[in-house]
Amino acid sequence: MVLTLVGANAAVHALCRLADPSFKMKHFATSLDNFKSGRLHTLLTSAFTHIHLDHLFKNMSSFYFFGSNVACVFGPAFLFKLYVSGALTGSAFFLAEMACLAPREEGASAAVRATVFLEIFLHPKRMLYLHFCIPVPAAIAGAGFIAADLWRVKKGQSGVAGSAHLGGAFVAALVWAKLKGWI
Fold this sequence. Notes:
Structural class: mainly alpha
Largest sheet: 2 strands, antiparallel
Low-confidence stretches: none
Strand content: under 5%
Distance between the termini: 27 Å
Strand order of the largest sheet: 1-2
Number of helices: 9
Order of helices and strands: HHHHHHHEEHH
């Protein structure tokens, strides 16, 4: 499932590079215009496109490492549901924040954050390597990610959808609470 989702992201990125930019905006970007126009599919399809190649690489490398662990423990169907839930919730959070502020959001960041944060909740003492070289306990890295996203939301249009990231983290928190039997 991990490689399928990574492959789907890479294929959509390539397709969007070849297609007319208006096609990408109409069918692969979460925006208030798309939402008001009834293009609700963009709440999910935005999780399969990226602005730049480095955005695709960062999201998919994170998803590969964290998603592989989640799929190993809970199975590929669980990972797929987590990815979709993170994408939809991240889009909803983004729309709520951007009702008066920004034009669009795209990228798998919310879906990837759901996967990353589930791993953080499950293994808070595990060492993560930021930028592949800086060892940080998962709980501290997670707190840093949340703080950075809250700062992005507070600052406003930073080019990174902090609200979408927080939506993904919210999904992970709900899934973790469900796994623990708390909800």
